[in-house]
Amino acid sequence: MAPKPVRMAVDGKEITAAPAGDGCWTLTSDAGIERVWAVGTSERSWVFHDGRVYVLENRASRRGSRGHSISNTLTAPMPATVRTVLVKVGDEVAEGETLVVLEAMKMELPLRAPKAGRVAEIRCAPGELVQPGVTLVELS
Hints:
Number of domains: 2
Strand content: over 45%
CATH class of the largest domain: Mainly Beta
C-alpha cells in the first residue's frame, strides 16, 4: 500500500507531504511546492533537501537514547558511495559549503558544512561505500 499524503506543522507552517515515487516527496505550503528525497525505517528517516540532510527520529523509538552534538562533523546520512571529496585537510570552509558529494539511489547528495571552520580530518575517499552515521569530514 502506497503512503498517503501527510499534513504537518514545521516551524509553525502547515505543510502537506505527498509521495511522488522513488523516495521523492512533494511538499506543498503557502510558500509553494518543493521536492525532497527521503529514505529510512520506522525509527529514523533521512530527508535530503537543498543540499542538506535532516534526520527525523520517531520519538517513541528514542526511549533511553542520548542526544549528542555533531556540529563539528559531517556524517553520511544513508548508505551511499563517496563520489567526490571537494576539500583537503587544512582548508577553511564556510557554513553551507559543499564538502563531499555522495551517490545513493541514482542521485547525487552534496553534503554541506554544518558550520564554518577548518578541515581537521577526512575519513573517506572517492569510490568508498559508507554507512549512515559514519563521520566523513571533521572540522575544527
